[in-house]
Amino acid sequence: MSTLFRFVSIFLLIGFTSCLNTKIDRMAKKATSPVQLLDSPSGQLQLIFELKSGVPTYRLNKGPEFVILSSDLGVVLEDEDLSKNFEIIGYGKRDSSSTWTQPWGEVKEIVDNHQELAVYLKHDSGKRMNVIFRLYDTGLGIRYEWPDQEAMNEFVIMEEKTEFVLADDHDSWWLQAYIPNRYEHLNIASKASEIDTAATPLTMKTDNGLYLSFHEAALTDYSSMSLINRGENKLQATLFPWMDGTGHKVRAKTPFVSPWRTIKVNEDLDGLVNNYIELNLNEPSKIEDTSWIEPGKYVGIWWDMHLNRKTWHSGDKHGATTEYTKEWIDFAAKHGFNGVLVEGWNETWDGDWTKNADQFSFTESYPDYDLEEVVDYAQSKGTNIIMHNETSTGIENYESQIDDAFDYYQQLGINTIKSGYVGDMIANGQWHHGQYMVRHYRKVVEKAAEHGIMLDVHEPIKDTGIRRTWPNMMTREGARGQEYNAWSGDGGNPPNYVPTILFTRMLSGPFDYTPGVLDLLLKDNEEGRPKNRVHSTLAGELAVYVVIYSPLHMAADLIHNYENYPIPFQFIKDVPTDWEYTKVLAGEIGKHVTVVRKDRNSDDWYLGAVTDENAREYVVDLSFLDDGKEYEAIIYSDGPAADYEVRPLLLIKYGQIVNSVSTLKINMARGGGMAVRFKARN
Amino acid sequence: MSTLFRFVSIFLLIGFTSCLNTKIDRMAKKATSPVQLLDSPSGQLQLIFELKSGVPTYRLNKGPEFVILSSDLGVVLEDEDLSKNFEIIGYGKRDSSSTWTQPWGEVKEIVDNHQELAVYLKHDSGKRMNVIFRLYDTGLGIRYEWPDQEAMNEFVIMEEKTEFVLADDHDSWWLQAYIPNRYEHLNIASKASEIDTAATPLTMKTDNGLYLSFHEAALTDYSSMSLINRGENKLQATLFPWMDGTGHKVRAKTPFVSPWRTIKVNEDLDGLVNNYIELNLNEPSKIEDTSWIEPGKYVGIWWDMHLNRKTWHSGDKHGATTEYTKEWIDFAAKHGFNGVLVEGWNETWDGDWTKNADQFSFTESYPDYDLEEVVDYAQSKGTNIIMHNETSTGIENYESQIDDAFDYYQQLGINTIKSGYVGDMIANGQWHHGQYMVRHYRKVVEKAAEHGIMLDVHEPIKDTGIRRTWPNMMTREGARGQEYNAWSGDGGNPPNYVPTILFTRMLSGPFDYTPGVLDLLLKDNEEGRPKNRVHSTLAGELAVYVVIYSPLHMAADLIHNYENYPIPFQFIKDVPTDWEYTKVLAGEIGKHVTVVRKDRNSDDWYLGAVTDENAREYVVDLSFLDDGKEYEAIIYSDGPAADYEVRPLLLIKYGQIVNSVSTLKINMARGGGMAVRFKARN
Fold first, then answer.
1. Residues B27-37, buried b or exposed e (16+ Cβ, 10 A)?
2. Residue A61: its chain B contacts at CB < 8 A?
3. 3-class SS at A571?
4. What SS3 state is found at B358?
5. Cα nearest neighbour of A87 on chain B
6. Is B539 part of any domain?
7. Partner of B454 at 20 to 30 A CA spacing, among A29, A37, A360, B22?
8. What is the tens place of the pLDDT at every residue in A58-80?
9. DSSP A514
């Protein structure tokens, strides 16, 4: 008798060949057991799939604790309920281990280690649907696949039934979905049970100290997912409808895949912020040569309008004049900014421009603005004009001009467009987040890529990581930007705004917040709204450049303000927008945070810390610094009496020599912050 | 970016080294997820372990169907409830693939391919308990381990909580537990819901056509398990108690293991009968040289007493006389039988011997029986005396003499003991199946092995496969033997008895049924019970030698009957008791069965078919025969008018030449059968 003990892979299955998401009719060895388990690469998380009486379900646990209790999966089609009456026709499993490099980003290298489980289902109608799970040590992606098949060709999804059943009534930070204004709201902090319908990303903290985020990845030709509270800790996916009376959510044709539904699970805020599973769940770059894609900072004609000093429309106060643009070009060139944004340059801003959705021109300038002249002038000074495309939600109008306009821009040498979709709904009645607009936003990204153009989208579709596939999709809004401080009737963005959004909206991707307003009291603002101001301190406003990641960061303030504040302005000039590493050193959602990031193009590190309306003092250790290297820490700190409400402008700049065994005292005034450049010596 | 796809083993764990069950404190890589999955080697079965709110549970499925729904595990100790409040401290997994050879048996080679999952649990009291699952393609073994630990030394199990929750109310064949008479009852066929408390093995058939058997393996120092019906398809283990008022079920000391609880799952009756997981779950042979262990057939002084022609006790009709024994020795020698059993040879059968538990001698003969003389005579004729040890349940008495007695037997050259434990309870009040007797039965096996003695135990502990470890443990009773036909007030064993027990009692191991009574009408029986008879036909009685497996088979009838029936007696002489292969060609539990077995020592095959009170006719194909070989089929068939009630003796013997592409018509009278020798032609 010979007995051979081996350590083996236990499961059956396997055998599919598609490397990414393009082939969706993978065949696996037949295995029909109703339960399958998937352990993440290092065993941090475990997924349990189970077909329960014909209903596909999943659970997720971390160690002994369930993160997600048994949750149903499926969709309802117009002609079939694909959320029950399934049988299993097979499973596939595989693992993947890779590292890829972001052409730009908050980190340079991203590791993609995951285990994948494909569940091949057959509905009693004969329709086949697959559920794909990708399990990382820090989260889960779930996607539906409808392979090419005789039983399904064109189909319509009326609702998605994906559930996320929480293990408890967690602390949650969320935005209400299905209300106008494109994610430009303050986060609500509440128990999960108080959620109505939440936009994603939706952030939670468990009593065990886990940080969860629910979102989606690779939203390509589908409708955006929100999460509706079904009671008893159950959240369920809901999709934005087509607004044409059909109730359709998604119109599709096999082979077809859904976006990935994602659950991030991290033990600390650093892990949460550095969780890149959504980028990993997007396909690799389709742009082979990315050398023309350059992160950077820009200035321009924008804050003027928010302060009512200039106008988008024509007339005496028209901002976008050739002359004023040249002033900005000179300023940008002098201080090393990569671009000058000029809004209100084209025809049709006059009158109520939000009603001009069908009239905007994307090639014709106002008479007082010579586009070609300013573009030439900028290029001669070594900077660029950032083209502004405000659609006013006129999608048909924009799409009818886009080829000609982008050809023209490319011809001019313009490499960046800031686009806008101002309006509560799209002009033809669609939601910004329905399948119609998902398709549009994606189309513009692809057209821009063809024309060598980077995009900064305002009033955007939410970020689901497509910058991995289209790295010309640089940054976007989709949150309350700086302009709310200029005119918002609710007083603007409170001090806890930035310490919140780093852990909510920012989890989805870069945010063009347009920071850098140094005239915090907005002396330049119009008389009618004297209470509006920036609710921060100078140090806090500088820190935003590090805390909020954007590959294109604006320095939003006016030229004379930068000239009046040379000390903080130096930090704005110094701070990079492309990073090698990012680390959260300390933080509490909605209260404070200290972030450090390492410049991708030097050995320098930068630190940004911000706090809510409470002053804070704590010590961080600088062990993130390279071992054995000395740094000159150039510290921009709140002055001893600084206070965002009464003395926001008290800034202290000082230096000290530090290394990786040093500590640094973070000292923040009420509503203040701290910004540090760790300048490598050698 | 390089992406590497590999197929890998997913789970964590692993890393224990014990090859079998002796080391029970294996350490595994820490993994604390509450759910683990185990797929059987070819994926036929899947085990799902889950710690549910501190309670260890398991499920078992075959393909898409659950065989066992969520079932709790655990035991209740005298001082602690080890069925809840557990946490997981780790898992271990390993697989094993081996083949081993039975020194004798129903098949020669047994494949042992399994996957093992060890679940390391810690109770909130600090006590550690492991649950070990061994999963085969055809069944599951579950065992508890209590490793050596400071928190546990000596302990008492008050009850076991192992559950088996059925997926449906299956058809069941079972014996009532906790009633006297040592498994000597007819099986009850009912729905599972009608089970009260069932002895094991317990057989079921599902609506999907799966055959299930619930039993245990390696019952070494524990109490026997029965299954109590808790309603709603839930069976729960229950253990025979110590009968001393303590309520103790098991007295133990760490390190300690329970027997394996087994669930066999097969798609057909051939698989069920050839399911050897219980042998696999026993440890390999402890007897290195097994050459002295020889299967065979025996005759002897036994049926005489059941017919009241002779007596066990002394007097005129005393069976065990030197003279009568020599007649049997001559008969055995003439016809090639390996042994002659002589019952009633020793002192103390006089009076009501069932009350003489403390008086039996195991070395002292009645005056009319010269043990040494008959032993010498037998050996001189090339056969052996089979020693008879009736304990009358006097365990202390037996154990006090056993060393001397076995020494004496060994000295005489006796190689086989038939032992007996007649009594409803053991003389000291214990159950035959409690831990006290488990220890005793095992002790006798070990002592016999030391003395080169094979055992045939009547009124035994149930078989749990220890013949693998102690291959001198040949066969046993533990069912209604032939003697019930002689005197049972209920008329004896009905025709459906053998077609039932092959799929119930026989699943646990060999059965010394003592077949071969050719005087089916029992003309020799005493006048007072003329209705008693064998409820079969001659062909059916012959078939029992093939259908019922026993390495020691008796030819039970009297010498003159064998002389009167030379044709059927030839089959009894021919049929072997050691097999290379066993196959069930056709069958239905309790109705009929056709079994073929291949002689281990020749190329011959043998077929046995039996039916219940219904005549049956069907064709089997002979593809089991070796390809390209010709066989002379010597067929013993019921005559055209045969009927077990009115014409049981109508036997036809005929021959035909067949090969592996031939078919054979099985033609059985009411209560009849068929026996075939396929004699290989060269």
1. ebeebbbbbbb
2. 33-35
3. helix
4. coil
5. B64
6. yes
7. B22
8. 999 999 999 999 999 999 999 99
9. -
Range of the domain at A662: 492-509+520-682
* Least CB–CB distance from A32: residue in B10, B38, B63: B63
Instruction: Single out the residue in B231, B254, B280 at which a domain terminates.
Output: B280
Could you tell me which residues are beta bridge partners of residue B152? B149
pLDDT digits (tens, 9 = 90+) for B534-569: 999 999 999 999 999 999 999 999 999 999 999 999
Among candidate residues A280, A303, A331, the one where a domain is terminated: A280
Q: Least CB-CB distance to B8: which of A9, A63, A100?
A: A9
Question: B164: part of which helix (H) or strand (E)?
Answer: strand B163-166
Quote the ipTM score.
0.80
The answer to the question of residue A486 being in a domain is no
Quote the CA–CA distance of B46 and B61 in Å, as a whole number: 5
Is residue A267 domain-shared with residue A307, that is, in the same domain? no
d(CA A161, CA A235): 10
Q: Please give the average per-residue pLDDT across B194-218, as a whole number.
A: 97
Q: Which of A160, A294, A477, A483 is catalytic?
A: A483
Nearest residue on chain B to A101, judged by CA atoms? B1
Q: Does residue A8 share a domain with residue A40?
A: yes
Nearest CA in chain B to A110: B1
Each residue of B418-470: pLDDT tens digit? 999 999 999 999 999 999 999 999 999 999 999 999 999 999 999 999 999 99
**What DSSP element (H or E) covers A538?**
helix A538-547
Q: So what's the pLDDT on residue A558?
A: 97
- Do residues B125 and B185 share a domain? yes
Q: Do A38 and B3 touch (CB under 8 A)?
A: no
CB B46 to CB A33 under 8 A? Answer: yes
Q: Do B33 and A61 touch (CB under 8 A)?
A: yes
Q: Is the per-residue pLDDT at A16 higher than 80?
A: no
Mean pLDDT of A172-195: 93
Specify whether the CB–CB gap between A615 and A602 falls below 8 A.
no
The pLDDT > 70 percentage for chain A reads 95
Most B CBs within 10 Å: which of A5, A47, A67, A134, as the mutation test of the B interface? A5
Same domain, residue pair B275 and B297: no
**In CATH, what number is assigned to the domain containing residue A51?**
2.70.98.10
Model pLDDT, residue A302 = 98
Find the CB nearest B61 among A9, A35, A99. A35
Mean pLDDT across chain B: 93
Q: Is the pTM of this model over 0.90?
A: no
The closest of B342, B347, B356 to B310, measured between CA atoms, is B342
Give chain B positions within 8 Å (CB) of A88: 64
B258: closest CA of chain A, how far (Å):
23
Percent pLDDT > 70 in chain B is 95
* Tokens 């080169």, residue located: B452
Residue B105 to chain A, least CA–CA distance (Å): 16
Contact criterion met (CB < 8 Å) for B9 and A12: no
Report if residue B486 sits inside a domain: no
Q: Any idea of the CA torsion for A45, A51, A53, A55, to the nearest 10 degrees?
A: 90
Interchain pair B96, A9: CB under 8 A: no
Q: Are residues A301 and A380 in the same domain?
A: yes
- How many domains is chain B built from? 3
Q: Are residues B113 and B180 in the same domain?
A: yes
The verdict on residue A458 lying in a domain is yes
Residue type, B359: Q
Sequence-ordered alpha helix ranges (H) in B205-359:
269-273, 277-280, 303-306, 322-335
Q: Are residues B593 and B531 in the same domain?
A: yes
All residues of chain A having their beta carbon less than 8 Å from the beta carbon of residue B90 are none
A3–B98 CB contact, under 8 Å? yes
Q: Is A483 a catalytic residue?
A: yes
Looking up tokens 């300013």 gives A374
What integer pLDDT is reported at residue A89 of this predicted model? 93
Q: What is the pLDDT of residue A606?
A: 98
A272 and A162, same domain (yes or no): yes
pLDDT score for B13: 28
Per-residue pLDDT at A528: 62
CATH of the domain at B465: 3.20.20.70
pLDDT at residue A20 tops 70: no
